[in-house]
Amino acid sequence: MIDKKTKEAIANSLKTGNTLNMRLGKNIRFKIERRLPFLLVYRHREDGNNPISGLVVTESSYLIADSSTDNNSDVAILVKDLAKGIADDYGSVMIVEIWVGKPGSKSFVIKAAKDKAPNTVKALREGLEKFSSNQSGLNVILEETTIRHPEGVSDFLTLKQCQESGIYLLGLEIPPFFQNEHSSEFYYLVFKEFKRAFSGILRKSIFEFLRVQTSFDIENYQKLGSTAVDNAVWEVDKKLSEIEAKYQFLMLISPTNTLQAKEEFISSQHKINPKFLYRNLPVDPDRLKEELFSINLRDIEDPTLAFLYTEKREELEKQITMLKERGTKNFMYSSIRLYSSPGVNLFETAKHLLKTLPHDSYEDVKWLDCYDLAKICTNEIDKYREIYPKLDAKVEVKHDIVGMLVSRGQLYIGESFKVPEHRIQALVHHEVSTHVLTFYNGKMQPFGQMSSGFADYDELQEGLAVLAEYLVGGLTNNRLRILAARVIAGRTLIEGQTFEETYRTLTTDYGMTPEQAFQITARTYQGGGCTKDIIYLRGLIKLVDYLQNGGELEPLYVGKIGFKHIPLIQELKIRGIIKPSPLFPSYLKTADAKDRLEKLKAGMDLPELVN
Questions:
Q1: Where is the signal peptide (predicted)?
Q2: Most exposed of 114, 210, 350, 469 (fewest Cβ within 10 Å)?
Q3: Burial of 439 per CB tally in 10 Å (0-12, 13-18, 19+)
């Protein structure tokens, strides 16, 4: 029996739009985040597992009850009365009951009224058929019937009750393809894939119902997703961030003696491969892995967030493994797991660039040292700090690194680094207006991983950073040649060539200068062999393709995300979980940058990006 106080709490929640999340007795869970005209219902049996509840709890409006809950129960009467109140305002309410089919079944069975809400049924059917086309033996059946509940149990609501309350009732039987009918083995990865797909399929179907059958105003099906983040997410995000904060991956795999190694390599007339030295590891990799896999990801109900955090844990595992293998041959194989290897198309593109792009002349060029560069970068950071006072990035000149490096939002410049004057703005906006900016945009988001980086964020980051060089007019022949040469070096590395052989390939076959060839080879062979540097050219190619196919640039600065995360982050933004970003690259507000961007979108090949 549902008491009067509970009924009043539910009614008040619906009236005010506040989230309602409660348990009614032992077996009933009822959640309505806001006043939406739909409800997902699942009645579980007590004689088996309840995997379907994992599909239900990802949505913003659902009821989970046991199979004894029928149309005469207090819960059903309550739902009927609540639905009537919402239907009076919006015209109708959609209730979808889902259940598991019999063992061995391979059919999704949609049970719907004849000639009612055809767009809704069509969207559901097409979504399930698309999913089934990628699975072995699955199919979709549409039954136009008055029976829209599981076999062997009573109606949750009778058709008469639905008519009285303005309810459109639809039933969906889901085949247990994620479970072995003989051994009862549960295929967790198969179910997880379906869970992600089903959420989108269901929301698109409900969206069609709301759009056509009701007066409810909603502009995107993703708005139907949950706007709340369960506690498990915050716990996982916190623990992953704590583990990642214990080490600075790029710093720990970067040699500390690059300049000395270079001198020894030259003095040996390029015959003795350099021996690199590294910073001491401040962590025990084995203990870190123990911590990493003690994190409970299965409690994350939201499929989008579960996907993001599962991927991130896998990436951290690969990084920690690389730290343990640093200085060994296994390091290279782990780097291929993390960054992949140069594919044939990327390799051919790199060769084409090196063969067709001429060298830039450095005659009569003014050079700036690390301290001049640090001042210019600091000034740019100060401009962003005026917009976002919480930005506390600093620039530090260090003797034990080569080039420039951003780690956790802080910019480090090697003491020996110098840069031609015409490349200053390109480097500033590569490092500050991309790497630093996205770190702080991510830092103001609710998830720590938005600043430290979701899995595979590096490729999009470096694509954006190189794009910045083009948009400010500083992408040169030599710069594109260097990015291409990094791909060549990555290829020779995985083919088994030595440091010396790769160095000679770059100088002899592709005309790189000794200085360029050494730096590229040193970066490629650091740690035992690292393919990370192929992501610069690969990221630029993917980004150009994204923009030329209608992709928008501004959403990519929300934090440190990967290409595959773009639609996921957009979904979280639509659902109100991701907030608007405070910072946007300053150069993108200039007329020159806007003009270059439009030309790129209209169609440009890589060599045409040279300014």
A1: none
A2: 114
A3: buried
Instruction: Using alpha carbons only, give the angle 116, 120, 126 rounded to the nearest 5 degrees.
Output: 125
- Tokens for 47? 């004689």
Exposed, middle or buried: residue 166 (CB in 10 Å: 0-12, 13-18, 19+)?
buried
Give the per-residue SS3 of 291-331: HHHCCCCCCCCCHHHHHHHHHHHHHHHHHHHHHHHCCCCHH
Distance (Å, whole) CA 188 – CA 422: 55
Structure confidence at residue 48 (pLDDT): 47
Query: How many Å apart are CA 121 and CA 205, to the nearest integer?
Result: 7
> Is 312 within a domain?
no
Nearest to 534 by CA among 553, 520, 548, 514: 520
More confident residue, 57 or 364: 57
- Shared domain check, 65 and 104: yes
- Both structure tokens of 497: 């060539």
Instruction: Give the predicted TM-score (pTM) of the model.
Output: 0.86
Give the integer Cα–Cα distance in Å for 73 and 68.
9
What number of H helices and E strands is found in the chain? 24, 13
Residues 9 and 149 in one domain: yes
The domain tally of the chain equals 2
Residue 206 lies in a domain: yes
Q: Half-sphere exposure of 460 toward its Cβ, with a 13 Å CA cutoff?
A: 21
Residues pairing with 406 in the sheet: 411
CA angle 249/250/251 to nearest 5° reads 95
Q: Name the band, by pLDDT with cuts 50, 70 and 90, for residue 363.
A: confident
Amino acid occupying residue 457: Y
Task: Please say whether the beta carbons of 472 and 587 come within 8 A.
Answer: yes
Instruction: Determine, yes or no, domain membership for 435.
Output: yes
Strands 38-44, 93-100: pairing kind: parallel
Residues spanned by the domain of 10:
4-218
Are 44 and 52 in contact by the 8 Å Cβ rule? The answer is yes
Distance CA 252, CA 288 (A): 15
544 and 602 Cβ atoms separated by less than 8 Å: no
Alpha helices in 31-117, H assignment, sequence order? 53-56, 74-90
223 within domain boundaries: no
What one-character-per-residue DSSP string does 232-287 give? HHHHHHHHHHHHHTT--HHHHHS-S-HHHHHHHHHHTTT-S------PPPSS-HHH
Q: By the 8 A CB rule, do 176 and 103 touch?
A: yes
Residues 133 and 273 in one domain: no
What is the chain's mean pLDDT, rounded?
A: 92
Question: In this structure, how many other beta carbons lie within 10 angstroms of the beta carbon of residue 253?
Answer: 22
Six token digits for residue 509: 């076959």
521-545: per-residue pLDDT in tens? 999 999 999 999 999 999 999 999 9
| 303 against 560, higher pLDDT | 560
φ/ψ (deg, to 5) at 51 = -65, -30
Distance, CA of 140 to chain centre: 31
Q: How much of the chain is in helix, strand and coil states, percent to nearest 5?
A: 55, 10, 35
d(CA 40, CA 56): 7
Contact 71, 157 (CB under 8 A): yes
Q: Which two tokens stand for residue 252?
A: 């720990």
Q: Mark whether 172 and 260 lie in a shared domain.
A: no
Provide the β-strand partners of residue 174. Answer: 100
